[in-house]
Amino acid sequence: MIHEIFPVGPLQCNCSVIGDEQTREAMVIDPGDDIDDVLAIVRRHGLTVKQIVITHAHIDHIGGANKLKRATGAPVLLNVNDQALLKMMDVQASWIGVETPEPTAIDASVTTGDKLQAGSLVADVMHTPGHTEGSICLYFAAEKKLIAGDTLFAGSIGRTDLPGGSFKKIMGSLLGPVLALPDDTIVIPGHGPLTTIGEERETNPFLAG
Ligand SMILES: [Zn+2]
């Protein structure tokens, strides 16, 4: 598995480029900004981007998606429950003081039960509302990796005070499907350092005890 994780944009969203070493098929997750850098990584590994997956429609995760779509022709996958957030990209831009990015449309909505593939690599989609209504996580079972978006961080959880946020729902998502994953699952949060499910189960103040 090729897996490059690198922070993009002013809020340093963790963007992932995931590729199959044999077929060179790839998916890009959360291309919030710095699309030239994303494309350089794609080219360096000789990858073909088959899909662009967005964990949720906050500007720092989705801002560069349409530019990447124009460059690669790959469809944008996002849970439909974040449609309202998509429509207020100008408001989101004003929150963080950046220009409104070019609009992104949902080519297909993804939710629990869907499987996304890049070559032989398979990710299960988990709909994990709470940070936003349409937040998803991607679980690569064979590699024991969770792309968590802004649902789970090392030592913290996603904020729930923005439009569409719900503390009750994020706790349901975390105590339900997320903590059902094995302890040795590597967690790639939407921001900041990597962690594991076991580490968070033990020490995260929102989850421990
Ligand atoms: Zn967010």
The helix count comes to 7
- Return the string of H and E elements: EEEHEHHEHHEEEEEEHEEH
What integer value in Å does the Rg equal?
16 Å
Estimated share of beta-strand residues:
25-35%
Q: List ligands, each type once.
A: zinc ion
Beta strand count = 13
Layout of SSEs?
Blueprint lengths: L1 E7 L4 E7 L5 E5 L5 H10 L3 E6 L5 H4 L2 H8 L3 E2 L5 H5 L1 H8 L18 E4 L2 E7 L8 E5 L4 E5 L2 E2 L2 E2 L9 H12 L7 E4 L5 E2 H7 L6
Parallel strand pairs: 3-4, 4-5, 9-12
Antiparallel strand pairs: 1-2, 2-3, 6-7, 7-8, 8-9, 10-11, 12-13
Give a concise summary:
With 209 residues, this protein is an alpha+beta fold.
Write structural notes for this entry.
With 209 residues, the chain is an alpha+beta fold. Helix content is 26%, strand content 28%. The protein is built from 7 helices and 13 strands. The chain has helices spanning 35-44, 59-62, 65-72, 83-87, 89-96, 167-178, 197-203, and strands spanning 2-8, 13-19, 25-29, 48-53, 76-77, 115-118, 121-127, 136-140, 145-149, 152-153, 156-157, 186-189, 195-196. The strands form 3 sheets. A 6-stranded mixed β-sheet has the order 6-7-8-9-12-13. A 5-stranded mixed β-sheet has the order 1-2-3-4-5, covered by helices on one side. Strands 10-11 form a two-stranded antiparallel sheet. A hairpin with a 4-residue loop joins strand 1 and strand 2. The radius of gyration is 16 Å and the shape is globular. It starts with a strand and ends in a 6-residue tail after the last helix. Zinc ion binds next to loops. Residues 56, 58, 131, 150 line the site of zinc ion (ZN).
